[in-house]
Amino acid sequence: MRTSASVLHLDLDAFFASVEQRDKPSLRGKPVVVGGVGGRGVVATASYEARKYGVRSAMSTREARSRCPHAAFLTGRFHAYREASAIVMGLLRSVSPLVEPLSLDEAFVDLAAADLPDLELATCVAVAEDLRARVHEATGGLTASVGLGTSKFIAKVASDLDKPDGLTVVPPGTERDLLRPMLVTVIPGVGPATAERLRRAGIQTVADLELVDLEELVRLVGKAHGNGLFHLARAQDDRLVVAEREAKSVSVEGTYDTDLTDRKLMEGLLTRQAGEVAERLRKHGLSGRTVSIKVRLHDFTTLSRSSTLSSPTDSTATVARMARGLLADLDTSGGVRLLGVGVSGLADWIQEDLFGETTEEEVEPLPEVEVPSSRRRTWSPGMDVEHTTMGRGWVWGAGRGVVTVRFETAASASGPVRSYPDDDPELSAWRPADPDETAPAPPA
DNA sequence: TCTGGGGTCCTAGGACCC
DNA sequence: TCTGGGGTCCTAGGACCC
């Protein structure tokens, strides 16, 4: 443990919402909610004005709307957030070379690696106050809450104690007294599931936790977690501030406003996601051996399937084919609300291509991968054409890469509904030719 | 029509090798 | 003929974080 309060944690207050209020004066002083605005969206950030109404991060947007109907609901402008974040991270790096970003709005700074005359409390506090002022100025008015302590854990707890726009210092030696009355959920890694297990064992505060011996803790929550809790409960935290961390996986996923049932559509969406993942791999000079898909069913049960290649790939075609192959295994007849594709087992080198440039248009050979015979199956989609008798379809809804079309049939002007990826060539044939024509009313 | 998206880390079981 | 370990890799699921 260090003896000086030289770990600094900085957290930008209500970050996304604050950027929106900064850029749009009419939103200042008003409740602002940034997050998914679709039927299945959740809140990413609520401004302090919205929090007064009980709107919280991770709450469904539906609930946020019912709690605070007059709030502005925004989808978010990520490059504005990235830009503001880059300014702040730059300021932090001007203080110390050792900066560990945790997300766009949060970072640790190791003042022991900074060029300071000493690490006395007063010196660290002066640095922190100066930093807060500079963040405010350089970002056009964003505020930050800062904590200073002898470890990451303590600095992070501290930054939370005086929000928004505050600074909290935990003097060396006072850590355990600070933690004892707090709930176990202040400890990073203690979420709802762990808190409930501990509660059943009569453990609610850090003081309670301190009384439990290591063996008992490991029995309760497992080896790694138990060990971690044992030490954090005693404010023992040796984790270093690390500037560079290598990515371990790259993934893309999406939740759809209505459940998907069409396998062809699912394959189309997985193919598109595979393309985004592969593009990000290539952009960062990465490739990976393990391709995974994630499928969340209508009832929220979440399945994952993965398959590992003998050598890493960054090819759209390979990732897409593997993703579709993994889907073939799953029963999705009840409907799917989320699909995702990921690549892990990353290597930061790109495989030598013995045959020169390979373009994405070329069909690559099937990857070498062991497939259990029970899974060896070919999915041959193929549109059924029963809905096409009238030769007309109405674009019914669109969003998140999906276009829903209602078809007319010989029997009914308001026939079956099908959904397509919005770049599906089949789709263009199904847009109504005459833009003035009105679509039939939706069914009740 | 409760429940995002992009990640990390851990656990547990089975395969496989020595 | 019977009975081992340990280590590593892979897969699936779950908890957690911001």
From TrEMBL:
The keyword Hydrolase does not apply. Binds 2 magnesium ions per subunit. Keywords: Cytoplasm, DNA damage, DNA repair, DNA replication, DNA-binding, DNA-directed DNA polymerase, Magnesium, Metal-binding, Mutator protein, Nucleotidyltransferase, Transferase. It is an enzyme of class 2 (transferase). Residues 411-444 are annotated as: Disordered. GO terms for molecular function: damaged DNA binding; DNA-directed DNA polymerase activity; magnesium ion binding. One of its GO terms (biological process) is DNA-templated DNA replication. Its EC number is 2.7.7.7. GO terms for cellular component: cytosol. It is found in: Cytoplasm. The record marks F16 as: Substrate discrimination. The keyword Transferase applies. Mg(2+) binds at D11, D105. Monomer. Belongs to the DNA polymerase type-Y family. This is DNA polymerase IV.
